[in-house]
Amino acid sequence: QVQPVESGGGLVQVGGSLRLSCTVSRWTFSISAMNWFRQAPGKQRELVAGITSNGIINYADSVKGRFTISRDNDKNTLYLQMNSLKPEDTAVYYCNGDRGLGPIYTWGQGTQVTVSS
C-alpha cells in the first residue's frame, strides 16, 4: 500500500511561517488531485486545500490568503506554504490523493504543526 510521507511541521510563533511537504512514491501522483488535511485534538479531520492534476486550486475559508498549495509532479511532491499562522492552525497535517472516490492512499503519519501565542 502506498503511504504519503509528510514533513516540515514544527513549533512556530503566531504570525510565523512553515512549509510542509508530502511525497508519494507512486506514479499515480501526477494524475491525481492532491489534498492537504488537518486534524486538531478532539476534532474531525478537515480539508485545508486541494490541487487538481491540472492545477485547479481550492482552499478552506479559514486559510484563504494565508496558505498556498502547490505541486511538483517531477518530484511526486505536494507542498503547503503556510504564512501568518494562528493558534487555531495547530493540528497534525496530512496529505492524500483523490480521483473522485475519496482518499486513494493509506494515511501517513502526518506532520505536527504547533502555533504558540
Architecture overview:
The protein is mostly beta strands and 117 residues long. It contains no helices and ten strands. The protein has a six-stranded mixed sheet, with no helix packed on it. It is globular, with a radius of gyration of 13 Å.
Brief rundown of the structure:
The chain has 117 residues and is mostly beta strands.
Name a few traits of the molecule.
117 residues; mainly beta; 4-stranded antiparallel beta sheet; 0% helix
Q: Level of helix content?
A: under 10%
The Rg value, from CA coordinates, equals 13 Å
By helix and strand content, what is the structural category?
A: mainly beta
Distance between the termini: 39 Å
Order of helices and strands: EEEEEEEEEE
Q: Let me know the largest β-sheet.
A: 6 strands, mixed
> What is the approximate shape?
globular
Determine the number of helices (DSSP H or I, runs of at least 4 residues): 0
Q: How would you state the average pLDDT, rounded? A: 96
Give the strand tally: 10
Sheet with most strands: strand arrangement: 2-10-9-4-5-6
Estimate the strand proportion.
over 45%
Poorly predicted runs of 5 or more residues: none
Q: What's the structural blueprint in terms of helices and strands?
A:
Elements (H helix, E strand, L loop, with lengths): L4 E3 L2 E4 L4 E6 L9 E7 L6 E6 L5 E3 L7 E6 L4 E6 L8 E8 L12 E6 L1
Parallel strand pairs: 2-10
Antiparallel strand pairs: 1-3, 3-8, 4-5, 4-9, 5-6, 7-8, 9-10
